[in-house]
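A quick aside before the break. I want you to see a complete sequence-to-structure record at least once, exactly as it would be stored in a machine-readable document. Don't worry about memorizing anything.
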Amino acid sequence: MNTTSSNPTTAVRKGEELDWQALDRHLKSVLPDLEGEAEISQFAGGASNLTYRLKYETDDLVVRRPPFGTKAKTAHSMIREYRIMNALKPVYPSVPDTLYYSDDKSIIGSEFYVMRKVDGVLIRNRIPVEWNFTKEDTRRFCNSFWEKLMELHQVDYLEAGLEDFGKPEGYVKRQILGWNRRFERVITPDVDSFSAVRDWLVASMPADSIRPSILHGDYRIDNVIVDRDDPCKILAVLDWEICAVGDPLMDLGNSLAYWIQDDDPAELKHLVVQPSNAPGMLTRGQILDLYQQRTGIDIPDFRFYLVYGYWRLCVILQQIYFRYFHGQTQDERFSTFGVAAQNLGEHCQRLMLGR
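That is the input. The structure line, written in tokens, reads:
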């Protein structure tokens, strides 16, 4: 199967330009095989770290740096993202090749790292029509997608050399208290404080998992690159900026919060960023069944993890909206994120009550 779809780039957005000459000089000094003048563009997706494409005559590079403006203290660490990808490559090959990291802010104003662009297809909000997928094809793709996350959750983080990457003990508590604090710092007058949600999550925390795993933190269809000739083959998983070691069910809750299906309320359907409701896709309930079957992890009650997933997404959107609200970014995509955060907080309230 062949397709011309790919990971789209656009002209660099206003206000997100870099010192291209300084970057070019530096890259050619540390990557001596680079030749020619780079064709510069910006990846269209993503609302957090900034991702640029520099296509040279001899290589096709991707440069990642943190966003401009106010950032959470522990967020957007490039060295963290770079390190996890380096460590995972030998035991979980589905990551891009990393080439270089720098913390020298004099080059482009922040730390950054460089990886090689993966030649494949990135799916956004719909399955490419030229694939002519049947329901059976879509189901096969869906199974492959979720199996890739299960594969990650079964990697031995100690074997990968990540014993000091994070502390599995207390992971659940750190996540709940941490996301609650982040939300408190970015409340705006047009979004509720949702103190009841924050209190419920604290009161409902389960014990730490006895099988801690490497967690991606942002596993979605639009964060994977698939093979052009076999879309059910995942070549690379992208965006490792908030990966960790901890309870795999927390990671599953994060991913299922993005998984919109046909019977969801309208306010959730407005948040769709991937074709999770395409005919043939698994429902959240079916994904939970598959996860239990393949991993052997028993899930008697998933409500806490799902509320956590939606709440974390609410906080992420509110953090981005806070930057837009205070004029720290001019990206108009973020103008509606406050409404989206409000809707997600209200959805958490309904789930807490079993609705």
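Two observations worth writing down. Confidence is low (pLDDT under 50) at residues 1-5. The chain has two domains: 9-119, 122-352. We'll return to this after the break.
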